[in-house]
Amino acid sequence: MSGIDRLLSIMTRLRDRETGCPWDISQTFQTIAPYTLEEAYEVVDAIERKDYDALRGELGDLLLQVVFHAQMAAEENLFDFNDVATAIANKMEQRHPHVFGDVPAATPAEVRANWQQIKHQERGDESVMADIPHAMPALKRAQKIGSRATSIGFDWPDQTGALNKLQEELAELHDAIADARHASMEHEMGDVMFSLVNVCRHLGLDAESALGKANRRFTERFTQVERAVREHQERTGETAGPEFMEGHWQAAKKQTKTTT
């Protein structure tokens, strides 16, 4: 029995109403969805850490989510795992006419343009924005929105325009803060973030990845400061002040820069 057949059999058994697992039986598409998203993030995390042993396991966890959803769908006579596999196989052939057909595409940019054109023809969407998931993380969604706008020429020619727009939005945020208008501050802060994502896009950077790495750097440095503060308090019985913490922060920052 192949690995995928064994996995499908296990899931069928787990969902069996008489002999299966009470937890698995009680699940629905809605209750499993958060786990699906979490497993996708863990796949990305393993890739960014270049931990390929972990990646193998995380991909298995993500595959389990697909199998779980497909099993629940089969029970409701909606579709099954084979339908899922067939659908994506068909899509890959249809979206790669330069490989499986006679449409030319010599560069990744041309492949991407063909992909989007075929996708919108299939869906019949009136807008290139129509299929961008609302549940997508906001930074990732902002970057995709910017890219889609570019597909019809609605964009600056280079990063200069994006940087100028960022400065414009920052000035408007300063004005909103000065007026102490909460709704305006939220509005302008959103515009600043969106503009910053556009700068990332023009620089060839992924905003979600950039912020994720910044989060990790901060956490690593803060953990070192936290350890130093604890040791200081245990040794002296005194509370560490801002200057003490800033000194250890700078030391941690310097160490991080030399190791990354």
Features:
Helix Hairpins, 12 helices, 260 residues
Description:
With 260 residues, the chain is an all-alpha fold. The protein folds into four domains: 3-93, MazG-like (Helix Hairpins), CATH 1.10.287; 95-123, no CATH class; 138-205, Helix Hairpins; 208-259, no CATH class. Helices cover 76% and strands 0% of the residues. It has twelve helices and no strands. It has helices spanning 3-14, 22-26, 29-48, 52-75, 81-94, 97-100, 108-123, 138-150, 159-178, 182-202, 207-236, 242-259. α8 (138-150) packs across α10 (182-202) and α11 packs across α12. The longest helix is centred in the C-terminal third of the chain and has 30 residues, at 207-236. The protein is extended and about 65 Å long. It starts with a helix and ends with a helix. The model has no long low-confidence stretch (mean pLDDT 92).
